[in-house]
Design goal:
Number of helices: 11
Helix content: 40-55%
Order of helices and strands: HHEEEHEHEEEHEEHEHHEEHHH
Structural class: alpha/beta
Shape: elongated
Radius of gyration: 23 Å
Strand content: 15-25%
Distance between the termini: 38 Å
Strand order of the largest sheet: 1-2-4-3-5-11
Number of strands: 12
Length: 393
């Protein structure tokens, strides 16, 4: 079965490399990934999967399912394929999606003998945006309720085990004031922009008094229409991050107090509400990553251990990891350290090394999944380890 999987990946790799290049040439952002959904869904159907689209409120989401007649675990491969606004595939999701599809398709070649069920969950909007972070909605809709484990691999500048990351609450902050002539009757106005700037500065002051895992960053998206009109409306978008959900809850309470204070100082009204799904922190299961690392080693590559810190970003894969064992190691697509969400990362995502990672990642993921199917005791231990890790947060 191991030989069948590897041979299949080698044979089909040209198809999936071309898919990766196609996605790279047609970057689509949050919940507009219509081309990506179409071509990836078509490929899954060609591989023998039962495919559905428009999932859990996401028109560009899809699921692919193949059930063996032989009992066994349910394993889900997560597929991302959205791009970044203005930068395109500078996070390598054009590789991410095809890698997961190829892994699932290779495993399908032996699943009737091994037993179990394979699912591919195409998840839009990981990078965020309106109604972003589809995995959160998939979890909420119960798509993982009967899944035993989830697998994926993210492009990076090194082979490294799944690491912790930050819980993240994307928020919209609005202030409502009263317009007036800024020169003739300023006393009649309530300046919403002043309230937003006071909040921005207050949040900057708060940074000095938070734990090292906390991140606060935002932009002003609306600050008025003309200098001689007191702005009656101002708005900004902010990301609030922390290492765990309880610390994030505390941070949000403190940040909203800053906004409330600014509103009282200026006389404006404020509204602070989520701009998209909230992301939970990743809960690694090291015993699960160890299986992937062993398979990667058998393929001639070495995986670095988990980062000891809380990571620097956030992902809706964290929400999946809160409910079932999940791996999202990184796979190297560059020749050295590379900052992500940059033009350099975008070019790496269509490089020869990047395209080769599709085959390497697909083999490692499919063989890891096969290990879980063939060794029920191993899967039980991983699930127990995961439960302990979730409880220990």
């Amino acid at each position: 079965m191991r030989s069948v999987i590897q041979t299949y990946v080698d044979r089909q790799l040209p198809v999936y490399r071309q898919l990766a290049l196609d996605l790279h040439a047609h970057p689509e952002v949050c919940n507009t990934e219509y081309h990506a959904c179409e071509v990836l869904s078509a490929q899954l159907r060609a591989e023998g999967f039962d495919v559905r689209t428009d999932i859990a409120g996401h028109p560009t989401g899809f699921t692919g399912v193949y059930r063996s007649a032989k009992p066994g675990p349910v394993l889900a491969f997560l597929a991302e394929y959205d791009a970044l606004p203005g930068l395109g595939h500078a996070c390598g999701h054009n590789l991410f999606g095809p890698t997961s599809l190829l892994a699932a398709s290779a495993l399908r070649q032996v699943i009737d003998e091994a037993g179990g069920e394979i699912r591919v969950y195409g998840t839009p909007g990981e990078e965020g945006g309106e109604n972003g972070a589809a995995k959160v909605d998939y979890v909420r809709a119960g798509l993982f309720a009967d899944v035993d484990a989830a697998l994926c691999v993210h492009p990076g500048d090194k082979h490294q085990a799944s690491s912790k990351n930050l819980a993240c609450a994307p928020m919209d902050l609005e202030f409502f004031g009263r317009s007036a002539h800024a020169a003739a009757a300023p006393e009649q106005g309530i300046n919403a922009l002043d309230a937003l700037i006071l909040t921005y500065n207050g949040l900057n002051a708060l940074r000095q008094h938070v734990t090292a895992d906390v991140r606060i960053h935002g932009v002003i998206t609306h600050g008025g229409v003309f200098p001689n009109i007191v702005p009656d409306y101002a708005a900004g978008k902010f990301f609030f991050r922390a290492g765990t959900a309880p610390r994030l809850d505390d941070l949000l309470h403190r940040c909203e107090a800053v906004a409330e204070g600014a509103a009282r100082m200026t006389g404006a009204r404020y509204r602070m509400q989520p701009s998209q799904n909230r992301l939970d922190n990743m809960v690694p299961t090291p015993s699960f990553d160890a299986i992937y690392g062993r398979e990667l080693a058998l393929l001639g590559e070495t995986m670095l251990p988990m980062d000891d810190g809380c990571g620097i970003g956030s992902s809706d894969a964290g929400n999946v990891s809160q409910v079932i064992p999940t791996i999202q190691p990184t796979i190297c697509i560059t020749d050295g350290p590379t900052p992500w969400h940059t033009e350099a990362a975008r070019e790496a995502a269509r490089s020869e090394k990047g395209l080769a990672s599709v085959g390497l990642g697909a083999k490692a993921l499919a063989l890891t999944a096969l290990d879980l199917i063939l060794d029920p005791a191993l899967l039980r231990q991983i699930k127990a380890d995961h439960a302990l890790a979730v409880a220990a947060q």
